[in-house]
Specification:
Blueprint: E1 9-12, H1 16-27, E2 32-36, H2 44-47, E3 51-52, H3 69-74, E4 80-82, H4 87-100, H5 106-117, H6 120-128, E5 137-146, H7 157-164, E6 169-173, H8 174-180, E7 190-200, H9 203-216, E8 220-223, E9 226-232, E10 235-240, E11 243-247, E12 249-252, H10 258-262, E13 272-281, E14 291-294, E15 299-304, E16 307-316, H11 326-338, E17 347-356, E18 363-366, E19 373-377, H12 383-398
Parallel strand pairs: 1-2, 1-12, 2-8, 4-16, 5-14, 12-19
Antiparallel strand pairs: 3-7, 5-7, 6-7, 9-10, 10-11, 13-16, 13-17, 14-15, 15-16, 18-19
Helix pairs in contact: 1-9, 1-12, 5-12, 6-12
Bound molecules: flavin-adenine dinucleotide.
């Protein structure tokens, strides 16, 4: 344990968001203590699909989505599942989620997402520079693949919105698609190609490498469970199972667990654990050159250092329910249909909780009425991509620099 005596900022949560906050704060000359119950870069941050897209600006809730949800819930292989008994708890969140997907709210949400994602590849490259692990982020395209060619329509609302935010898009037919990705099934008749983005070759390792960099820059890491944040005379007490710490400022970056620390302080934010699964094919026998989104089944596949990973599905069951690995085995079957030559022996299953807010935007602010308490959580489906800019904003807020963007969409008081 390397806790410093005098530390300006304690960050609770060493997922990719907390780690990026630490790096940006260290760049600004602040002393930093990262606290996590687990090793750095675990949680949702190690099991994701690895997509890092500067063009990501489409929230999960979009106009017309509600029509698809009943079918998804009834289909055992559908992309959304609610554990029996959890529906009453999930319902208020679900209603807010559907409301945020109105045509009226969409443009502002898209703008706020775009602001957070635009510089992500550049900032990651800067963070990784000099670590010897620069290869963990690879230039990539993002292919959204369709069985029904007529469904790949660049005039569709969401594609138009992406284009408005600068995304370089190209429509491909089936043959053009297989020139780029020869292993895909011939069932796919069209694709939309998003260019100029990146993918993580091992999302968890990016976290550990960047946490090591934070330590090399003087940051401390403490492996401890934080059970309470308490305001004191000159800042915050951070009460943990390994003893208590103090710092003038504290950042809540505890992902899906964040409200366990903030609710007792009167913060009211509808944070839901949107549980996702992945399956890793350790010996896939095929490989992909880009990130691939299977549009109908809504999962993403990508070749990584460890093998080929398919990640997706949204399960609502609360933070503490045990995993239902049938959701991961469903991804095995779906990926095999997409990649007919895939070897499905030697797989590994994983479950993790996306910290999801109904409008697909995170909370990034200093909590009103709680000086020195900052939020950096709620990044939902997009946290790998949004983490670098979140770190920059937090570093600005902590050092009382006015960030160059409108922060109102990320206020923890917006709900
Ligand atoms: C299947 C799946 C696929 C995804 N694909 C993508 C993708 O392709 N691109 C993308 O941008 N995003 C993706 N995401 C989303 C992304 O992974 C998350 O938004 C992101 O990892 C959230 O990071 P975080 O640091 O906020 O949370 P986490 O990584 O969960 O970190 C939170 C940390 O807080 C710690 N913690 C919590 N409570 C306490 C406590 N009381 N005391 C001490 N420590 C505590 C936890 O141990 C954990 O390490 C995906 C997510 C899933 C599940």
């Amino acid at each position: 344990m390397a806790a410093q005596e005098q530390t300006d900022v304690t960050i609770v949560g060493a997922g990719i968001v907390g780690i990026c906050c630490a790096l940006s704060l260290l760049e600004k000359g602040k002393t930093v203590r990262l606290v996590d119950k687990d090793a750095p870069g675990q949680g949702a941050s190690c099991g994701n699909a690895g997509v890092v897209s500067p063009w990501s600006c489409i929230p999960q809730s979009v106009p017309g989505l509600w029509k698809k949800i009943p079918g998804w819930l009834l289909d055992p292989e559908g992309p959304v599942a609610i554990r029996p008994g959890y529906l009453p708890k999930a319902l208020p969140w679900a209603l807010r989620f559907l409301k945020s997907g109105s045509a009226k709210e969409l443009p502002a949400i898209a703008r706020a997402m775009a602001e957070l994602n635009r510089p992500n590849v550049d900032i990651y490259r800067r963070h990784l520079a000099g670590t010897g692990h620069e290869h963990l982020l690879r230039d990539s395209c993002y292919l959204h693949i369709y069985r029904d060619a007529s469904a790949a329509d660049l005039h569709d609302l969401t594609w138009k919105l992406r284009a408005e935010h600068g995304a370089p898009l190209e429509l491909l037919n089936g043959d053009e698609l297989r020139e780029i990705e020869p292993c895909l099934s011939t069932d796919y008749k069209a694709a939309v190609l998003i260019k100029d983005q990146a993918r993580a070759m091992a999302p968890g390792r990016i976290g550990t490498v960047l946490a090591d960099k934070a330590r090399a820059l003087g940051g401390a890491f403490v492996q401890a469970h934080v059970h309470e944040l308490r305001p004191d005379e000159d800042g915050w007490s951070i009460m943990t199972d390994k003893g208590d710490f103090h710092s003038p400022q504290v950042v809540a970056a505890a992902g899906a667990w964040s409200m366990r620390l903030l609710a007792p302080l009167g913060v009211r934010v509808p944070l839901e654990a949107e549980r996702g699964y992945h399956v890793l094919f350790r010996d896939p026998g095929v490989s992909l050159n880009n990130s691939i989104m299977e549009v109908d089944a809504k999962f993403v596949s990508s070749s990584m250092e460890m093998g080929l990973r398919s990640a997706g599905t949204a399960e609502f069951a609360g933070l503490d329910a045990p995993p239902n690995y049938r959701r991961a085995r469903m991804l095995v079957r779906q990926t095999k249909r997409m990649l007919p030559d895939l070897n499905t022996e030697n797989t590994e299953e994983w479950m993790g909780a996306r910290p999801s807010l109904p409008d697909s935007l995170p909370c990034i602010d200093e909590v009103p009425g709680q000086a020195g308490l900052f939020t950096a959580f709620g990044h939902g489906h997009y946290g790998l991509g949004m983490a670098p800019m979140t770190g920059r904003i937090i570093a600005d807020l902590v050092t009382q620099t006015v960030p160059n963007i409108d922060l109102a969409p990320y206020s923890s008081a917006r709900f």
